[in-house]
Structures are given as structure tokens and as C-alpha cells.
């Protein structure tokens, strides 16, 4: 069971390589896209090799999400609090991007450990920006301060034209995810996964983890949400977050885990689909090998230990000539028996794949997700 890392590995490696070669004038121009349609662009010019420009393009927000100047509310304050004077926000950003940051590499702290921690934080710019609204609400929950949007539905973007919803209250925050998938197989796998995911929460040792519910219909918390936001073909998942889940360092883990829950489900659905396909291919290969072993030999006649020759008959010939005096090779009956068993095994295998599918047993490992939020 894999939990996605909050930082971009490629971005972090690029920053580390640039720090280790600051004395060299190197020109960089990298573009790449990560999950949920988050796009990055890095530029370093030869004229000013100590300055790195990092541009970020966020998923297209739906109508219900609150954005200010192309960014979620609270994003500017979160960037300033996380990076300080090392990073400067350029206004306006580069064309086609929501945010452009100017990083002065010469202002990085000299202490290697602190510098590495800061670079990891810069590589986590996705979490800082997209998780800013969620962080503001959960911080108020941790300090038990009444949020200004108390009992009001708050939409937070997490995928292109899709959002999940928060209902802030004094003692808890309810988080609801409408789960949507485009592929019909993904819908079936995701539905089974989410049902097993809810069951895993009831396991002993996870009593302090956030409560989790799944329902095929919209929960009461989504009353008043836009009709487009309620079009979920894999049901709705609800988490209830209490102050104990956002105390101290738990806040960062909770913000990231909630922000990427849909990506977490999608990742393991695709892994399970690949696992199922691998099992099916191996099973079909074993059935084909059994059929190959059941093929009759090319020789038309054989001699027994008593030097008597006989002709090998096919299955149809054995049936039509059952009353004849011609000796029938016992191997024919063996071949028919093998073919029958192979056919029966294949039918059972297909029925098993169309049922609960053996690969879903791996979803019980979803306990790790709850432990991360515990």
C-alpha cells in the first residue's frame, strides 16, 4: 500500500542538483506534468544562474471552488509563511500558469540539514498551494476557534473541474468526496475498494483514526451543493476530522492525505487492475500448456511390448468405432479427460474474476492510510 509523497521527486532532485553546481553557469528549461493535471516549469538562465523560476499550473477549478487571482484562498499567505525571504512571488505569473516563484539560490541557509528541509518544502509547493484552504480550516479546528464559514459548505479543488467539500464546525470538520471515474472497470474496482476501505476502519487498533463512511447516494452534508458536484458514479466517502487529528505535526499529514485521497484511490485501483490482468495471463498460459500436453502424438501407429501394432484414433473415431474390434488407445480417453478439466477450470476462473476478484484482498492493507491520519 503506497502513500503518495507530498513533494515532487523530480523537482526536488532538480533543486539538489542545482545547489551542488552553483558555481557552474547552467541553463535549464524543464516542463513536466504530475497527477491530477498539476504542471510545472523550471527555468534558469545563463545571465543569472543563481535565480531559478518555478511556475505551477493548477487543475481547472469548478464553479463552486473559491479562487482569488487564479489561486485558492489562503495560498499567498501559506507561501510566505512556508518559504520566507528565499522565495518571491512574481505578479503576474508566466502565461499559462497560476503561480510563478522566484527562488534565489544564494539565499539558501548554509546549514546542510536545514537547507535540505527547505528544498523539500519548496518541492512540496503543490501541497502548500492546493492545501491552503484546508489548512486554514483545520488550523481553526485545532485551536478550537469558530471558523467564519461555520456550518457552510466549502468546496476545495483537487482534480480538473472537480472538488471535495468541507463542513466546518467547532468540534469537528466533515469532509465529503464525490468519487468519479471515467472507465467502467475502474468504477467497479473503486466501489469494491471503498467498501473494503470502510470495513478496514473497524479493525482493532484504529479506534482513534477518523471515522469513515461510504454511501452510493449523496450524504446530508452535501445539501445545497451544485447538481454537477453530486454526479458521482462510485459513491461518496465521508471523513470526520476531530482536533486530535490535527495536533502538532499531524496537521501536515492530514492536509496532504485529505488533499490527495482521490489520487490515492485511483493509484491502487490501477495497481489492482494490473495485478488482476497479470493473474489472468498466468492462468491462461497454464491452461494453454495443459491443452498442449493433451495433444496426440504425430505417429500413426505404435507397437506394444508384445510387438502388436495399433492405430491411434481421434476422439470422434473412438466414439463411432466403439463397437469395432480395432484397439483404442487409452490415451484418447486421457486427452478428453484433460480437455474437460481444463475447460471446467477456465469456466471457474472466469466466474471468479467476474465476482469479487481475488486481487481485492490487497485492499485490506488500506489500514496504513488510517494509521497516517491517526
Automatic annotation (TrEMBL):
InterPro entries: ARPC2, ARPC2/4
Compartments reported by the entry: Cell projection; Cytoplasm, Cytoskeleton
GO MF: actin filament binding; structural constituent of cytoskeleton
Subunit structure: Component of the Arp2/3 complex.
Protein name (Swiss-Prot/TrEMBL): Arp2/3 complex 34 kDa subunit
Cellular component terms per the entry's GO annotation: Arp2/3 protein complex; cell projection
Organism for this UniProt entry: Castanea mollissima
Function: Functions as actin-binding component of the Arp2/3 complex which is involved in regulation of actin polymerization and together with an activating nucleation-promoting factor (NPF) mediates the formation of branched actin networks. Seems to contact the mother actin filament. Arp2/3 complex plays a critical role in the control of cell morphogenesis via the modulation of cell polarity development.
Amino acid at each position: 500500500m503506497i502513500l503518495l509523497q507530498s513533494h515532487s521527486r523530480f523537482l526536488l532532485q532538480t533543486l539538489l542538483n542545482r545547489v551542488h553546481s552553483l558555481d557552474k553557469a547552467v541553463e535549464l528549461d524543464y516542463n513536466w506534468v504530475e497527477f491530477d493535471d498539476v504542471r510545472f516549469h523550471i527555468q534558469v538562465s545563463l545571465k543569472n544562474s543563481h535565480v531559478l523560476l518555478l511556475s505551477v499550473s493548477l487543475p481547472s477549478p469548478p464553479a463552486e471552488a473559491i479562487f482569488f487571482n487564479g489561486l485558492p484562498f489562503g495560498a499567498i499567505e501559506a507561501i510566505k509563511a512556508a518559504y520566507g525571504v528565499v522565495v518571491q512571488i512574481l505578479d503576474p505569473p508566466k502565461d499559462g500558469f497560476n503561480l510563478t516563484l522566484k527562488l534565489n539560490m544564494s539565499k539558501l541557509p548554509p546549514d546542510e540539514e536545514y537547507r535540505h528541509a527547505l528544498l523539500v518544502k519548496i518541492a512540496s509547493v503543490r501541497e502548500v498551494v492546493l492545501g491552503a484552504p484546508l489548512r486554514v480550516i483545520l488550523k481553526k479546528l485545532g485551536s478550537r476557534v469558530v471558523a467564519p464559514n461555520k456550518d457552510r459548505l466549502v468546496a476545495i479543488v483537487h482534480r480538473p473541474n472537480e472538488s471535495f467539500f468541507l463542513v466546518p464546525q467547532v468540534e469537528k470538520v466533515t469532509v465529503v468526496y464525490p468519487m468519479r471515474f471515467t472507465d467502467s472497470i475502474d468504477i467497479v474496482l473503486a466501489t469494491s475498494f471503498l467498501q473494503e476501505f470502510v470495513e478496514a476502519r473497524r479493525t482493532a487498533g484504529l479506534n482513534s483514526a477518523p471515522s469513515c463512511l461510504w454511501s452510493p447516494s449523496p450524504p446530508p452534508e452535501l445539501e445545497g451543493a451544485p447538481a454537477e458536484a453530486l454526479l458521482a458514479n462510485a459513491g461518496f466517502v465521508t471523513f470526520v476530522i476531530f482536533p486530535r487529528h490535527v495536533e502538532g505535526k499531524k496537521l501536515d499529514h492530514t492536509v496532504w492525505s485529505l488533499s490527495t485521497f482521490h489520487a490515492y484511490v485511483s493509484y491502487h485501483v490501477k495497481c489492482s487492475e494490473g495485478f488482476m490482468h497479470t493473474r489472468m495471463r498466468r492462468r491462461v498460459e497454464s491452461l494453454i500448456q495443459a491443452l498442449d500436453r493433451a495433444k496426440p502424438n504425430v505417429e500413426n501407429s505404435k507397437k506394444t511390448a508384445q510387438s502388436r501394432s495399433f492405430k491411434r484414433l481421434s476422439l470422434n473415431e473412438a466414439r463411432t468405432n466403439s463397437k469395432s474390434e480395432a484397439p483404442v488407445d487409452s490415451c484418447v480417453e486421457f486427452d478428453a479427460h484433460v480437455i474437460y478439466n481444463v475447460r471446467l477450470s477456465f469456466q471457474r476462473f472466469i466466474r471468479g474474476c467476474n465476482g469479487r476478484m481475488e486481487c481485492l484482498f490487497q485492499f485490506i492493507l488500506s489500514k496504513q492510510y488510517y494509521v497516517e491520519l491517526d
